[in-house]
Amino acid sequence: xxxxxxxxxxxxxxxxxxxxVSVSNAYDYAGCKWPSNNMVYDAHSLSSGWQDVVSGxxxxxxxxxxxxxxxxxxxxxxxxxxxxxxxxxxLAVTSCSGSTIVRAPITFxxxxxxxTGTGTPTTNYYDARGVATHEFGHAIGFHHTQSTNCPSNxxxxxxxxEGYGATxxxxxxxxxxxx
Length: 179
What we know:
Elements: H1 2-19, E1 28-29, E2 38-41, H2 48-62, E3 70-73, E4 81-84, E5 92-94, E6 106-109, E7 114-115, E8 126-127, H3 128-139, E9 142-143
Parallel strand pairs: 2-3, 4-6, 7-8
Antiparallel strand pairs: 1-9, 5-6
Helix pairs in contact: 2-3
């Protein structure tokens, strides 16, 4: 009898724990998608250094072969990737709306110092490759990660977490840093 009560109590405790467990995601799907599994972008107006950066930003998404999503360059596309003025202090902005994405231009702010190399940015420079990876995430339909899943330790943050510090390169990959 005592063993049966102990077993029932343990089952009850374990069951109660499941009531308080929430799923943690490193992404937040925006609810919109492209009509096909391919997204194309136009980078022809950028310098060759910036074209390399943008191309590098799409690679992590294309490497998720199980997603079926592909991001490709097509200079006749209306999805322009440019350098220009961006409001509200953002490093870059991707615009899309509605449940079907028909256009997703990306603009990198000219108000910041950008590092376009493959190493680590120096003080006061932002990693353009990491920001490109983040912005392509928006372009294929992801919002920022829920803030509760974005720890204050910046090196533990997911690619789609809002905000990005100078000299950091962690957004170049889609690796989950919280396990």
